[in-house]
Amino acid sequence: MNIFDQYLDKIKKILLDLSSNDGLILPDSLDGITAEIPPSKFDSDISTNVAMVLSKINKKSPTDLASVLADALKKNDTLIENISVINPGFINIKFKSIFWTNFVKEIINHAKTFGINTKEKKNNYLIEFVSANPTGPLHVGHCRGAILGDVITNVLSFNKHRVTKEYYVNDYGNQIINFTKSVYFRIREKTFSEPFPSDNEDLYPGDYLIDFAQNIINSNKKMDFEDFNKISGELTALSIEEALKLIKDNLNSLGIKHDNFISEKKLVSNHEVEKVIDFLQKNKFVYKGKIKAPASEDDDNWVEREQLLFRSTDFGDDKDRALQKSDGAWTYFASDVAYHKNKLDRKFDYLINILGADHAGYIKRISSSVDALSNSKGKLICKVSQLVKLIKDKKPFKMSKRKGDYITVDDLINEVGKDATRFIMLNRSSDVELDFDFDNVIEKSKENPLYYVQYCYARIASVFRHLDRDLKSDIQINNYDFSYSNEEIVILKKISEWPKCIDAASNKLEPHRIPTYLYELASLFHSYWNLGKENPEKRFINVEKKITDDKLIFLKMISNVIKSGMDIVGVSTPEKM
RNA sequence: GCGCUUGUAGCUCAACUGGAUAGAGUGCCUGACUUCGGAUCAGGAGGUUCUAGGUUCGACUCCUAGCAGGCGCACCA
Predict the structure, then answer these.
(1) Within a 10 A sphere around the Cβ of A250, how many other Cβ atoms?
(2) CB of residue A310 closer than 7 A to nucleic acid strand B?
(3) Quick check: A564 CB within 7 A of strand B?
(4) Domains of chain A by start residue, with CATH
(5) What's the CA gap between A465 and A540, in Å, rounded?
(6) pLDDT digits (tens, 9 = 90+) for A359-408
(7) Residues contacting A296, CB < 8 A, separation 6+
(8) CA-CA distance, A364 to A357, in Å (whole number)?
(9) Residue A498: exposed, middle, or buried by beta-carbon count in 10 A (0-12, 13-18, 19+)?
(10) Less crowded by CB within 10 Å, the N or C end of chain A?
């Protein structure tokens, strides 16, 4: 039930009517006409820009046109209390109290579906996110993208789209060889008491490898660890398995579960890379050539080679991109092209990739390949999540990968918990860098938006508790005819924005709008609550049972929306804190 | 140098796919607990939305150019 959509439809209907009967001229598309939330200083519930959009084409002043439209609107709607035309030509509509009574009933009766866009086409999405190398635990850098992807999925699913969550496992290439060697040296450290080589920069230094090594030794008692070359294949598989187990644990503690894990190695061994390159070759997107040294590299160190290149410059990229290494192995990009071909073949309406800021430069390349593979019909959307700056004791602290002492997802969850991590990571637009202040995140005050919103829900729960009612169970509406105060109307207006918030979050893939909205709603609620301190009549539990019952329905409506939103964000709504 | 991205109150950020007098928190100042939960609330002060042009009835939002910060610019992944 989106009242803005409802009234937009009404307005358009009236326009068509006026156009056929009174000579109103309409443009080809009515898309520019909107129904919006008026600024709070106006005593009004919905506003529309219709008169300003149509004034030029009709050669009339916006205000004159607005008066005509306002009259027509008022005439066929008994729920409008008054309608006003305000410069530069907005039409503002104010509803009668009965409108809101109906509204509340509607939401209470359709608690589970309020906010869902019932008009739009439902799509089938594939979202790829996290996809961190299977060489160790997830760290803070992965965390934001992980949560972003998960909550985008939740928003889309809430809006009845179909979404498949996928993790691309980079289990092929040099990094994996180095990683496996590192595990091997840790095994030798244990079985042959040889020290781990500290001078080899290619090896992974992290302590977690010691656990990997021990686990592999324990569960492979018969394995002979003497000669690396004899066991490298098997050991690679075992090492990756260990890493993936750890990563899945990390994701699980963030509350994230992917539907599929797609192995790069399998794509390679199934010859999907060759096939896709054949295809590109036939369509003249691939050639043998040389690329120039990157600007960051000294020309002296750069060796120009002839190699297999993809014409990404045809699609706006800076340079063509290498597909094959000098040793004949595929580049990461080549197998990723195969992976995207694989995605395209599965016929999704949209492909979404969530990338970290440090991979943003990769977008042109991969979207070029999708364009080449799909004749520019691939509908790939890349979403970048900016860096997270960790702050403790008012100071930023950096993590250094070299020493292996970076902050892991585990560290984060242990310190601040899953709920706070999710809510705070999501509270800002993914386009801006995020300050993640440890002291702030665990603080229990208004400064911490998670608690502020949860507290709102807990307060409502406490009212129900006082009356021996259960907030979670359904509430009955019999003769409900609440006469709303101004404070209540303000809250109702905010509630009516919820479908708009979901729409924006869903269409623009901007889930931060949800925590922002919930915070605003909670803020209005806390003000409303405090009215009861000075004026006992404003309290929810009233001597008159009818008033108490009506107010409970009102509170139930608020808690429904809070609960919906918190579920999408993926955090709890405790009834006591 | 090139590409992407950000620039809004002292600080951290919002602003509904171009709407009206740009909003919150924090910090600073002042006030409210015998209460349905003070993890809260009320009030005050704080702005040339980086700059210069352009498009538009209307620009924080779109376009062009510049300035400043961040990220990236491999046969790595």
Answers:
(1) 23
(2) no
(3) no
(4) 3-95 (3.30.1360.70), 174-253 (no CATH), 449-569 (1.10.730.10)
(5) 12
(6) 999 999 999 999 999 998 879 999 999 999 888 877 777 655 545 567 88
(7) none
(8) 14
(9) buried
(10) C
pLDDT at A398 (0 to 100): 65
The torsion defined by the Cα of A538, A542, A545 and A546, in degrees rounded to 10, comes to -10
Interatomic separation, CA of residue A549 and C1' of nucleotide B36, rounded (Å): 13
Q: Token pair of A149, please?
A: 């992807």
> What is the spatial distance, in angstroms and rounded to an integer, between the CA atom of A47 and the C1' atom of B21?
17
Give, in Å, how far the C1' of B16 lies from the CA of A518: 14
Q: Which two tokens stand for residue A125?
A: 């999405």
Q: Which residue is nearest to nucleotide B1 (CA to C1')?
A: A295
The DSSP annotation for A325-348 comes to: -TTSPBPHHHHHHHHHHHHHHT--
> Residue A457's closest CA among A373, A555, A559?
A559
How many Å does it take to go from CA A188 to C1' B77? 27
**Strand B, nucleotides covered by protein (CB < 7 Å):** 1-7, 12-17, 19-21, 23-26, 32, 35-42, 57-58, 70-77
Determine the pLDDT at residue A464: 95
Question: Phi and psi for A500 in degrees, rounded to 5?
Answer: -65, -40
